[in-house]
Amino acid sequence: MHALAWMGKNKVEIVEVSRPKIIEPRDVIVRVTGSTVCGSDLHLLHGVIVELQKGDILGHEFCGVVDEVGSSVTRFKKGQRVVASFQIACGECYYCKQKLSSQCERTNANTIANAMYGGRTAGMFGYSHFTGGFAGGQAEFTRVPFGDVNLLPLPDDVPDEKGLYLSDVLATSWHAVVDTGVSKGDVVAIWGAGPVGQMAADFSLLNGASKVIMIDNNWRLEYIQRKYPHIETLDFTKLKSDETVTSKLKAMCNNRGPDIALECAAGEYAKSWGHTIEMALGLETDTSELVNEMITSVRNFGRCGITGVYVGFCNHFNIGSLMERGIRLIGNGQAPVHMYWESLLQMIREGKIDPLRMVSHRVNLIDLDKVYYKFEKKEDGIQKVFVQT
Ligand code: NAD
Ligand code: ZN
Ligand code: ZN
After folding, report:
1. How far apart are CA 26 and CA 284, in angstroms?
2. pLDDT (tens digit per residue) in 371-383
3. 2-168+335-388 under CATH 3.40.1190.10, yes or no
4. Which of 37, 38, 376 to mutate for ligand 1's pocket (most ligand atoms within 8 Å of CB)?
5. What topology is assigned to 171-331 in CATH?
6. How do strand 81-84 and strand 151-153 relate by DSSP bridges?
């Protein structure tokens, strides 16, 4: 079968590999009919997620049709349409019982991840050996461990083009909003106008936010101004010489700043000053001013939520502002998809949200390698891609 594989830093290729097989009795093999590329795949493309191996099959957002089931699978049979969650959960451990599936204690035994983060996170499809080494869904077939847990049936009235995004981006943006506590009347500033940021804007408004401001540096802001004029924008490359993102946001929000800041951008990695684990992993160092921008921008006792993926450590962190002004900084974590996907499916069916508003391109799996580079450079009006298999 064909699949998209990581072949080294900044290199992905379509390769021929053998179809996955049932390994455990609770496995399901899915014939993939739709997949997509996430901002998180760029962190893999760039090689900043550690423990990638050449030939690793990428892709953590996919839907398809059940092709084969293991002997202990009870909820699914061949031919059923399904969407997979991006994280692999066992459904039974301490965290899974609370639907905090992104923190499943059983599916990722990686010791480096455990040591680096002080605890385990769940296994993930197509996301390197750092998250368990599970092959991803940018492929013709994928093995889904604990299939009864990690697949959701798609009803006939929800086509793949809409259902696919229950895998990740819808749950991620909804979780960012809920977990950071966006509620009625809040002013919300969102860094990153990609699919995650745009859906977080929609969800903030759905939750009663009085104003949303999106911060980025590319044509996506013009697209938002054109299509969603009720959302305000801030292009950080167009600031005057005496302005900063923080001063501009204050000026746009009663000189106090937004109530809530959401990081839906692309942190990648943060600066380290010689932390031993990070050095041992050979991570490059670069600071993310973005987190400091969020802290200094929000009003006193404001809340900041981080959804963009960071790897490693962050010094030069404005802890003084955080303490003195009572800022609440929340790591939203990898979004626990299982907590939300049924209610999000319902929102799609009721027309409360429209995942198609993110989708700009339709491509075939065989052309997916080229799409990665386009998505990386944000060329050709690319937002979210529907990959047909
Ligand atoms: P994307 O690459 O399409 O969009 C990211 C946007 O952030 C781009 O438009 C980019 O120009 C902008 N950006 C970069 N640096 C910025 C800065 N300093 N200030 C403002 N904007 C900046 O990605 P996406 O698919 O929308 O994903 C966004 C982020 O969410 C990624 O980091 C991704 O890894 C992360 N993510 C997290 C989860 C989770 O569960 N926590 C799930 C999915 C994606
Ligand atoms: Zn993702
Ligand atoms: Zn579990």
Report:
1. 39
2. 999 999 889 999 9
3. no
4. 38
5. Rossmann fold (3.40.50)
6. antiparallel
